[in-house]
Amino acid sequence: MLSLMSEPRESRRDRAARRAGEFPPAPESLPRAVLDSHTHLDITVSEAGVPGGPADDPVAVAIAVATKVGVDRLVQVGVDVASSRWGADTADRYPAVLATVALHPNEAPRLSDLDEALREIESLAARDRVRGIGETGMDFFRTGDEGRAAQEESFRAHIAIAKRYDKTLVIHDRDAHADVLRILDDEGAPDRVVLHCFSGDADFARECVRRGYLLSFAGTVTFGSATALREAAALTPVDQMLVETDAPYLTPMPYRGRPNASYLIPLTVRALAATTGSDLDELCAAISATGDRVFGPW
């Protein structure tokens, strides 16, 4: 969840007010349905609302708008105890939604009782529609040296939870590529590992692919400055590729800076098809099958 943790100068409340009602128009529908492998419905609704304005059931509206353009499954991702509990409850209510639960790496150093928070996460991990442990990992952009021990302790604990409950591990990695691999190699990775919002170059992608990890690409792959990221995508096998929004952040071009939501996934999928030279229909089919293999069945 990169933009949330980068804390721009304007407050979250000001940012929500600026973004209200500014959702981009719906893109052309995909030829075959895919999933949004990483979204934050709770933050999207609270900061930006939903396309079309206020609604009695904003989650249902977000799902319906996405489904119309070929995004029929969503993975709601937790970043602390409260959002993880909300996500697990939301997945129980909406058949199109599955959940992951975790403490974000920047959350771990802030907690007065990390062990108690981890116990809460583990209790949620046992629920059927919680299919992943994440986003967890390491973030050296926002947290300095003084917080890294707590981050690493938390990351190792999340890896253990994922293995105990046979859940997919969803990793947040910001400026910490080598340490993420070091810890995964040291602990022994779970059977399914997703590098959320993959941010590395081709060399890091090769290391992840070699280990069998999944690389999930967000709207950043459409940015003009993201040449290295597109090179990483170009060498990623389609059966190790996922696509995500990280909504309400990282909106794909040409709408960068406006609020993101699952219905904008087609923009990123089409960019990946162009980058990889894949047939769009075949790429959608591969992403869909990988999502079901990693998180499903819905």
Descriptive keywords:
TIM Barrel; 15% strand; 298 residues; TatD/YcfH-like; TatD family hydrolase; eight-stranded parallel β-sheet; alpha/beta; 12 helices; TatD-like; disordered N terminus; globular; single chain
DSSP summary: helix tally: 12
* CATH homolog superfamily: Metal-dependent hydrolases
Trace the largest sheet across and list its strands: 1-2-3-4-5-6-7-8
CATH class: Alpha Beta
Low-confidence stretches: 1-10, 17-21
Q: What is the CATH topology classification name?
A: TIM Barrel
Biggest pleated-sheet summary = 8 strands, parallel
Strand content: 15-25%
Distance between the termini: 24 Å
Please indicate the count of domains: 1
Instruction: Indicate the multimeric state.
Output: single chain
Order of helices and strands: HHEHHEHEHEHEHEHEHEHH
Structural class, by secondary structure, is: alpha/beta
Radius of gyration (CA) equals: 17 Å
Query: Average pLDDT across residues?
Result: 93
Looking at the overall shape, the CATH architecture is Alpha-Beta Barrel
Q: What helical percentage do the residues reach? A: 40-55%
List how many beta strands DSSP finds: 8
Shape annotation:
globular
Protein name: TatD family hydrolase
Pfam families: TatD_DNase
EC number: 3.1.-.-
Biased composition (Basic and acidic residues): 7-21
